[in-house]
């Protein structure tokens, strides 16, 4: 349970940093909302992203491991971008505003999120 909570925290912070760096290309929460509502939206998006990453991501990465090795990890970035877009679809279904401006921006966001998660995990764990 503690591992999941730390992963949720790290994912939420990484998503916030990616949204900050990508500006209007990746948004979490609506523009005119209060800070509290945006933090709640970030927490929900982080929670959904953590679930998607740990459940679906693990299965996808296990199944595609030979291709990940063959492409020297490039496929891993694409899988992470797809998981981010899946998170977008799920959270929008719940009425939480989370948007990525397309697949190319999702790839860039996935790289930023992965780097942030690696750095933050070193401090949290």
Task: Report on this structure.
The chain has 125 residues and is mostly helical. It is 78% helix and 5% strand. The longest helix is centred in the middle third of the chain and has 29 residues, at 35-63. The model has no long low-confidence stretch (mean pLDDT 94).
Offer a few descriptive terms.
two-stranded antiparallel sheet, about 80% helix, about 5% strand, about 120 residues, mainly alpha
Strand content: under 5%
| Number of individual domains | 1
Strand order within the widest sheet? 1-2
Mean pLDDT: 94
Summarize the main sheet: 2 strands, antiparallel
Uncertain runs are: none
Task: Tell me the Rg in angstroms.
Answer: 14 Å
Overall helicity = over 70%
* Separation, N- and C-terminal Cα atoms: 13 Å
What structural category do the secondary elements indicate? mainly alpha
What is the N-to-C succession of helices and strands? HEHHHEH
- Work out the helix count: 5
What's the shape? Answer: globular
Tally of DSSP β-strands: 2
Organism: Aeromicrobium flavum
Keywords: Membrane, Transmembrane, Transmembrane helix
Protein name: Phage holin family protein
Pfam family, one: Phage_holin_4_2
Structural topology:
Layout: H1 2-22, E1 26-28, H2 35-63, H3 65-70, H4 74-93, E2 98-100, H5 103-124
Antiparallel strand pairs: 1-2
Helix pairs in contact: 1-2, 1-5, 2-4, 4-5
Question: Summary?
Answer:
This protein is mainly alpha-helical and 125 residues long. 78% of the residues lie in helices and 5% in strands.
């Amino acid at each position: 349970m503690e591992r999941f909570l730390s992963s949720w925290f790290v994912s939420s912070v990484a998503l916030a940093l990616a949204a900050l760096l990508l500006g209007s290309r990746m948004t979490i929460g609506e523009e005119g909302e209060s800070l509290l509502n945006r933090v709640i939206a970030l927490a929900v998006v982080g929670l959904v992203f953590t679930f998607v990453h740990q459940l679906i991501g693990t299965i996808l990465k296990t199944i595609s491991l030979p291709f990940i090795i063959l492409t020297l990890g490039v496929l891993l970035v694409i899988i992470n971008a797809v998981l981010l877009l899946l998170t977008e679809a799920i959270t929008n279904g719940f009425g939480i505003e989370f948007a990525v401006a397309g697949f190319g921006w999702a790839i860039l966001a996935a790289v930023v999120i992965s780097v942030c998660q690696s750095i933050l995990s070193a401090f949290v764990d």
